[in-house]
Design goal:
Elements: E1 5-6, E2 13-14, E3 17-20, H1 32-44, E4 49-51, H2 60-68, E5 77-82, H3 98-112, E6 117-122, H4 131-143, E7 147-153, H5 157-169, E8 175-179, H6 193-199, E9 203-204, H7 229-233, H8 235-238, H9 243-262, H10 266-276, E10 283-285, H11 290-296, H12 306-315, H13 332-335
Parallel strand pairs: 3-4, 3-10, 4-5, 5-6, 6-7, 7-8, 8-9
Antiparallel strand pairs: 1-2
Helix pairs in contact: 1-2, 2-3, 3-4, 9-12
Length: about 350
């Protein structure tokens, strides 16, 4: 994988694919040795970015990544995230407060077996917390040498801009990356998130470019009754009986036909589409098995013609997300009725 790209305006060169580690551990592949083999195969194939999070199997994923990169740390642009709850009982073991960030980074460093994290990311927005409090703590970690860069994930455009403004106004380290959900089936970020990122020099690392498995090639006409553990864990995104997911299935069938005509796997079509956007630095893949990893390698050699890109736009219009559940984040202003009704819910 030789076609390295710049990570926003950092000057760091990254591979077109980032290895996402969410599926390593109890959430996906519980076999540590097998997971380590997959990670090392990705490194051997030229992938130089690994992205994990403390909340993935509550630390297990970070531990697996740490074991896999032992002896190869300098090859890796190592990214992890904080925010998710790390305790069922203590509400302070999670979130984006200074208290938690300063504490949790030490846990991630220990689990990863390293003295620094290249990219430390806020896993989700937390509107109740002053972004300056979060950026202040992250800036201190940069100055202490524990992290190199600050990033965000699934922020709204206004939140991206606010973070940039606060960083400039108050002399904090600014977020240099953003991880939004982006796939052919979830294109809403094309409206504002991606243009905003380009304007501010923010590198984009899209998550779920295969739309949670919808674009993996497993859903073919006549074979619609594919079962998946995700149907139980995330029914809003994967229950085929829901009308919005039936609409996704229709789009998937049309995209599969297009991929067949173009002589591509649907996986390569989907990944190449995401990588086509000029705001994107590297797309995050999340294989659970070696077979899944192998099916996604080599996408840097794929070039989509203008005709194919136009056909994709006809199937799913630019800026369109078929199922709102695929947005990854619902602002409290929409989910909490009290915020729309003067503090009183009826």
């Amino acid at each position: 994988m030789s076609q390295y790209r710049l990570l926003g305006t950092t000057g760091v060169h990254v591979s077109p694919l980032t290895l996402g580690a969410m599926m390593f551990g109890a959430w996906g592949n519980p076999d540590h040795d097998d997971s380590i083999r997959i990670i090392r195969r990705a490194l051997d194939a030229g992938i130089n970015v690994i992205d994990t999070a403390d909340v993935y199997a509550r630390g297990e994923s970070e531990e697996i990544v740490g074991a896999a990169i032992k002896g190869r740390r300098d090859e890796v642009v190592l990214a992890t995230k904080f925010h998710g709850a790390m305790s069922d009982d203590d509400p302070n073991q999670g979130g984006s407060s200074r208290r938690w960030i300063i504490r949790e980074v030490e846990h991630s460093l220990r689990r990863l077996g390293t003295d620094h994290i290249d990219l430390y990311q806020v896993h989700r927005p937390h509107p109740e917390i002053d972004i300056d409090d979060t950026l202040s703590a992250l800036s201190d970690l940069v100055h202490a040498g524990k992290i190199r860069y600050v990033g965000t994930s699934t922020f709204l455009p206004s939140q991206l801009v606010e973070a940039q403004w606060v960083a400039e106004r108050r002399n904090r380290e600014r977020p240099v990356t953003e991880q939004p959900p982006y796939s052919i089936l979830a294109r809403e970020v094309e409206r504002d998130v991606l243009p905003t990122a380009q304007k501010h020099g923010i590198g984009i690392l899209p998550w779920s470019p295969l739309a949670g498995g919808w674009l993996s090639g497993r859903y073919r006409r006549g074979e619609e009754h594919v079962t998946s553990s995700r149907q139980q864990r995330q029914p809003a995104r994967h229950d085929p009986s829901l009308p919005e997911n039936r609409a996704k299935l229709e789009a998937v069938h049309a995209l599969q036909d297009l991929a067949d005509e173009a002589g591509l796997s649907l996986i390569h079509l989907a990944l190449a589409f995401v990588l086509e956007h000029p705001a994107v630095s590297s797309a995050i893949i999340g294989p659970r098995t070696m077979e899944q990893l192998e099916s996604q390698l080599g996408v840097e050699k794929v070039s989509l013609s203008q005709d194919v890109l136009d056909r994709i736009d006809e199937i799913v219009a630019p800026g369109t997300t078929i199922n709102e559940a695929d947005r990854g984040y619902a602002p409290p202003a929409l989910t909490d009725a009290r915020l729309r009704r003067g503090g009183f819910s009826r």
